[in-house]
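Hi R.,

Here's the chain you asked about this morning:
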Amino acid sequence: MIDIQHFIYRESDPTPLLYGVYDPWLVALSIAIAIGTSILGMQLARVAHNQTSPLLRQVSIIAGSISLGAGIWSMHFIGMMALSLCTRVNYDTLTTILSMAPGVLASWYALHLLSGEKFTYPRLLLGGLIVGAGIGTMHYTGMLAMQMAPVLKFDFQWVLLSVVVAVVLATSALWVSLRLNQQQRISPIYTLATGGGLMGIAIAAMHYTGMASARITGVIDPMYDAINNHSSSLSLGISLVTVLIGVLAASINALIRYRQMLRSLQNNQSRLSTILDTAVDGIITIDMNGRILSFNHAAEQLFGWQSAEIVGQDTAILMPKAYHVRHNHFLKHFGEAGQAKILGVGREVTGVRKNGSTVPIRLAIGKAKISGETLIFGFITDLTQRNAMKKTMRERDEQLRSLMSNIPGVTFRCQYNQDWRMLVISDSVKDLTGYAAEEFLKNGLSCTLFTHTEDAARVIAEIQTALANGEHYAIEYRIKHRDGSEKWVSEMGCAIRDKSGAVQMLDGVILDVTESKLRHAEYESIARAINQSTSVAEFSMNGTILDANATFLTLLGYEKNEVIGKHHSIFCSAQDAASASYRNKWEALNRGEFVQGEFKRLGKNGSEVWIHASYSPLLNADGKPSKVLMFMIDITERTRMENDLKLAKDKAEQAASAKATFLANMSHEIRTPMNAIIGFSEIMMDTEMQDEQRRYMNTINNSAKSLLHLLNDILDSAKLEKGKLELEIVDFSLYELVDSIVSTLWVQAKRKNLDLQLELDPNTASYYLGAPDRIRQILMNLLGNSIKFTEHGYVKLVVKQLDNHELSFSIIDTGIGIPQDRLDVIFEPFTQADSSMSRKFGGTGLGTTISKQLVELMGGRLTAKSEIGSGSCFTMILPLQPGTAQTMKAHQHEYPLPKMHILVADDVRQNLDLISILLGRSGHQITTANDGVEAIHLFNQQAFDLIIMDVQMPQLDGLSAASQIRVVEVEKNLTRIPIIALTASVLQEDRAAAFEAGMDGFATKPIDIKALTREMMRVLHLDHAILIDDDSVPTHNAHVEDGIINVGKGLALWGSERLYFQELERISAEIPLQMSRLNSALENKEAKQLAALAHSNKGVCGNLALPTLYASFSALEKQALAEDMDSIASTIQNIAVAWDSFNTQLSAHKTAPSTNSPKAAVATAYDAQALQTLLSELARASQQAEIDDKRMQALNEMAPAFYQHATQHILNALNDFEFDLASERIAQLQAQIQDEAHQ
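And here is the predicted structure, written out as tokens:
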């Protein structure tokens, strides 16, 4: 048994120590061997780690452990031989050989640890301990094999230190190797060098630390021969043995690696072959000449070629012919330049199958050099299914987009998290929020960012509650639009959950309900307002009351429980509820018809309530009435007011009738004495009298005419108020109308030194269709007022054509003006701008009132504007349609009547005298009668050409006398004598009565000799265009056709034919001078002089009633003011031609012929049978106390003039609801018509 204490060195040991010396070369050799064998061992461990075969794995580990163990052993003995002790040292062979075992075992374990898959720190520490212990064991075992004279002992502390160094360094070497193998951050060579170096250092460090623990005691051997020491050769031998062992291990490693590589190559080849054969994509290998070298199974399936068929053929066979040339160019260029940019890049191209069909493919190109030969690899994918899938997906995507775009509102899918990030959202979100869909998808916008702050918490809470209950959610809330506006939206959605049931996403739709929300609120407000202000009730289709609001119940005095379930008839009288109209109403409602009307209903206490009710059936989904909704308004008070208004209307109509009677009587009573005053004053002024007497007589005449004008104004106003004034619509010449008005007022304006101007728009038509007499009346009144209230300056009439067939007449003056506060009342009756005006200027204030009423009667409008001190402007706008030119007839007073025997009947002596004087001047023979009886007597005794008869006379009035005269004419078969009614009345009814009595004409009082003469000519049917009596007084008709001289207007202006024609002769003499002045100014281009000459001549021509020349000079004046010299020259030529025509017509005046002889009257025909039928129908209506407006209007239009008086009495009786009186008068008229039919 070995005594360990024998090997422990103590300081007390008296034996001296031997100190050796190391051979540095041998030390270096020992370290190199340690490092080299460590690297080899670790390489074998790496091989073992990568080895899949367990046997080869163990072979690699064993070879490595032998190599490493031999290295440790060699390093140890070389290191021991490097120490020279000056004594002979031998080694025990068995011990030396056995000392290798611990190193081999330790190496095996270390390499086994390095080749393992799992790495843990306990295994690492255990490995380090074993390796360190193995190295130490091998070292100290090897040292025990030493045989020498000195005694070998060890310092125990150094022994322990050497073991610790061995363990620590071995552990470090193992850890470094393992970490570097795992991380693989550096090259395997560096990993082996680092791990092997550390392990070799650990082995050497342990050895030389252990050598330091050795204590050799004894004396130097004097026989020791250092030269013959064979330690170096022995070391080399050991090194060689170690190298051989390493070479053997390396060979084993190489064999294993070769086998491994061979197997790997076989596996790779097998795997590659399998991949090629099982690959879904086609793989084709070609050389640089385009020949196919390989063709895998997928390519065979794709192109229909077998590998044996196609290998060796050109690849052009697999592509369309159009690409063949390009393919050859590609191969050539690819071989020269390489085109690295196309390598590994897929392109979609078209291939050709064996059967000639094409197939879409994706082609990727690869390149490799094998044995110096460049090969091209084509990787081909069949895109047929992918393209079909893409098409399907594209169609589905389009369908989805179409569906999303057509779904009302915004469809979306969002994440269910704090951000609610959108995953899908339709484009319509931009209309809703102002943000595009891309901003939600790319920028992470969420609708929660736009939710109104007041609604945000509620929205999230309601959604979470619905999702927690596994329900869909629906919620309305407000959002803020990008432009700052606020919108109401309705969101509906559901949850998308994972397998565990957790909500992952939300799918939903957001609708803009702003409009419907506002409408709903508005409808609610309207319904609430209707419910509060209107009585509303709901009925079933059989009339049962279902509901009623408070207003309905209050109106009828019921409580709600008293009416619910009761029938509608409880609000009606028994008679009403049983009536056919009541049944018809409910039958109509059941047919779905709307019913409304005014009804009398009964309240709870029996009180009568008049209502206006609307019954509206409510339709169900099938379009059939399901119930009735009634809206009811209380019109009891209105009905009471209507009854009061009806009574007031009756009273007003009675008052109007009394007013009409009063006006008729007033007209007669006033006009009769005025007739004498005006007529005799005019006769007196034609006699010789003193100047003072003439002045007095002129005052009387003017005052009487003013009173007559006042009376006419009052009567016109009354007729306008009653609506009885009728307009006579005829074609008229606008120019002649305004020209005659201006010419008439010209003298009046001249007396006040006022410039009376006329501006006529050239765009106006020559003729219009309207009421010229009333237009004349309005313009005469307005122009007369302007002249009256203007002291200085001018009065202007401006006529303009407006759009929409409207004509504007503006009367502008520079007069006193009207205050603004009086403009609003200037058109009211008896109103003037100032109360003092009636005293200063005269007038009643009716003129403007009548003018405005006449304008409105013609469908126009009359306005005024004024400024104090600056003047006024009255504008009349009338709707006038263009008219047609009418054959102009000379005014009758221009032509003396043929000598006639005339019977004049009047109960007023002055009227008889006046008419006798006026008509006697014209050479007529006048016979007078004081009443109708005397007139009939004279008619039977003498022959007359004409009868003028007053209507109102004692004993026998004019109407009765005329009727009897007509009877006598029929009985004796006499020629019908024209009869003219003479009356102060201006009422239409009196005119109708006169025609009904058989009179032919109508003349008013006071006597207007001109009007009377025209009426005489009309009833005698005299037309001066065809009169041929050479002995008659001259007539003047040539001027009418050419429009040069208007004799009628001239005579009206000058009052004397002699004076008028004298003035025409004077102006004729001045024509050469005037033309010379015009031509001179034209030659010198003196526009201002031309304007002045045109203006003065225009005035002269207007005053002499020369319309053509007046128009020409007006045009010349405008052209001169515009300095239009070309037009001026043409106009002056036209004026020269017009003057020639003037002279010709003036000369013809002296020799114009005339004729006389009245023509026979023509009877008026009418349909007596139709009139009888109409009267019978009105009689039946009158017997039933009914008013038939249509038949009354037809009677008024159908009845001839001689029946107008009777028909007017019938119509008045019907309008006054005097049905018995109307029936009586109808019977009288029917009898009269029947009697006349039998005659």
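One quick note: The CA atoms of residues 283 and 296 lie 6 Å apart.

Cheers,
M.
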